[in-house]
Amino acid sequence: MQRRLVLGCGPVAERAVERLAEWPGSLTVLSRRSGVVDSFREDGVAAERCAPDDETAYPDDADVVFVAADDAAVNLDAARTARERFPDAHLLAYVGSDADPDTREALTELADRIVDARTTLVDRLTELTADDAAERLHRLYRVLKSIDGTLAVVTHDNPDPDAIASALALVRIAESVGVDAEACYFGAISHQENRALVNLLEIELVNLERGDDISEYGGVALVDHSRPGVNDGLPEETEVDVVVDHHPPRAPVEARFLDLRRELGATSTLATDYLRRLGIEPGATVATALLFGIRVDTRDFTREVSVPDFEAAAWLVPHADLSVLQRVESPSMSAEVMDTLARAIRNRDVRGEALATNVGEIRDRDALAQAADRLLDMEHVRLTVVYGFKDGTVYVSGRARGTDVDLGETLREALGPIGSAGGHADMAGAQIPLGILADVGEDSRESLSRVVNDVISGRVFETLEDATRTLGVSEDGTDLTFEFPMDEW
Description:
Blueprint: E1 3-7, H1 11-20, E2 26-31, H2 34-42, E3 46-49, E4 64-67, H3 72-85, E5 90-95, H4 101-110, E6 113-116, H5 117-129, H6 132-145, E7 151-154, H7 161-176, E8 181-186, H8 192-200, E9 206-208, E10 219-223, E11 242-245, E12 257-260, H9 267-278, H10 283-297, H11 307-316, H12 322-328, H13 335-346, E13 349-351, E14 354-361, H14 366-375, E15 383-390, E16 393-400, H15 407-415, E17 420-423, E18 427-433, H16 445-471
Parallel strand pairs: 1-2, 1-4, 2-3, 4-5, 5-6, 7-8, 7-10, 8-9, 10-11, 11-12, 14-15
Antiparallel strand pairs: 13-14, 15-16, 16-18, 17-18
Organism: Halogeometricum luteum
Protein name: DHHA1 domain-containing protein
Pfam families: DHH, DHHA1, NAD_binding_7
């Protein structure tokens, strides 16, 4: 258990010390400010009103000492006393912007680390004014402040944790500039982990219906997707104010503020960067959701992960409720998902290291993604495509691992001409309208399933064959990245 001692507690350092009181371990505060002492005592913290260099009030031992008065000379006296009393403790000292050079130098030599108000201020101003990210934030603020009314922050259909968390973060940012905002979605939240996230964190989301009049909103923002009417229930002609996404767009994207960063593993990483740079406290709910969003979209930092993804997660951890996160990650699997997975295994078509499977009619679209993830664990399988149909549309979910075949491009080439498709190199999806085939009766469902199977599997496998041939072979004659024995085609 870490033992922490705070000597002096000026207004600048008070908030940081309040955070210390929330952490595990012991905390002792010695300050001349009676209001601070009384406040900490009310919170159960050992606090005493005395001079910071009054050694008689010091505890028996300390692992970390934070010298935090506003007066640099007072801090220097306290630091000298604390260093002599606790020679092995880690000593931090606050230096105000008005400290004279000699005192600043003496504190720098004495302390293990200086909390320098002048340097912190310069760094903060630089971060907010001197780079491209700063200009993005200014443009975002300008657009948000111009919203007259409530901002609808719309996720893609049937939102995943990354979309939900990004929406919550953008709502938080909008509220920080006095703009009311609501996180909205079309479809359903059916994946058991997604439901657990919403329920355990008591997240408030607005479930929109296709055809709803959105003119009551003062503005529209899209998160984790970039075009209205594509994977959401908005009319295609909807004017969009803000787009924040990490997926590569298939077509030009229009918005008053646009931030697309395909190099990031999650939109939650992008949203976290906003919060961090703007100095906005995310709170436990938003931080937990963002951390989960990053972990899910990067498959626990193993899929399309970037350095900013790790940095964002590290910044979020102290704010997140890790106990809730653990409960979110261990929900029960619904009977619908189990049934879909069973059909996916039973109907699988494996050619080389690729697997495609038709699960027929579905009720839960999220079950396709879960089946695609699970089937990727099969021996010798490195690419999976799972599809089924619902309400006149064929839904396709694909996953890849350990191959240079770009799954997003593969599905775009194979299924884009007959529907919409896209995604990342190792995680992609598609939607294909059934058209007149959707009108078949119950007695023709089996025939419809066979037609869907022939169309989807045929196109996907044919495109994969072309892709692997294009990749070529290495100098020793072996396949560079993917095995597709030609006698299986």
